[in-house]
Amino acid sequence: MKTLKDVISLKFKTSESEGVIFHGEGQQGDYITLELKKAKLVLNLNLGSNQLGSIYGHTSMMTGSLLDDHHWHSIVIERHGRSINLTLDRHMQHFRTNGEFDYLDLDYEITFGGMPFSGKPSSNSRKNFKGCMESINYNGNNITDLAKRKKLEPSNVGNLSFSCVEPHTVPVFFNATSYLEVPGRPSQDVFSVSFLFRTWNPDGLLVFSNFADDLGNVEVDINEGKVSVHINVTHMKKNRIDISS
Known about the structure:
This protein is mostly beta strands and 245 residues long. It contains two helices and 17 strands. It is elongated.
């Protein structure tokens, strides 16, 4: 396929921060890859480079953040030659590709949800997508519908289920005044706590606990966007330990 225009759209949701959403490449060095990296969306595109190195076509665009929140996100990629519109959840960014070529020449297959192992270092280090996609549309072709009706030719559809499994975790929402109090464990000399959290606020108290017998307390908080741990021990010379990350 050698195209001057492309329109690719889909919706996804995942709790993973890394994963290839779709990938296509050609023998001329052209490629297009959309993937999640550190819960951000990255589009890598190359309409062609020359062997002399004077034309370098690789172009990378990053958008969004915290996309591993298991909520639906919509993507639309519109390309006309070197002009690209990348829309994530109705927020559009416009950019132009590097190089001098206008056509995307993909003579290998396009894969959704991952990329085949090609022996190249780039394919070995990338994770396949883990999550749900719907409404995959590639240049007017409804890929999800064709895959469900087994109308993709040729195709290699492996272990797909046409449903979306919800996560088993139960989140707790806190407003500015709410908190959750649980009983401590007496007569234990180990304090251990683990949790996942997400917030837009740069400051806030996450965990607080007094030690028994007035030995002090431990506090975990967010301060200016950084997580800090404060341990106060009453009977030590160095009675306060602060750890920030």
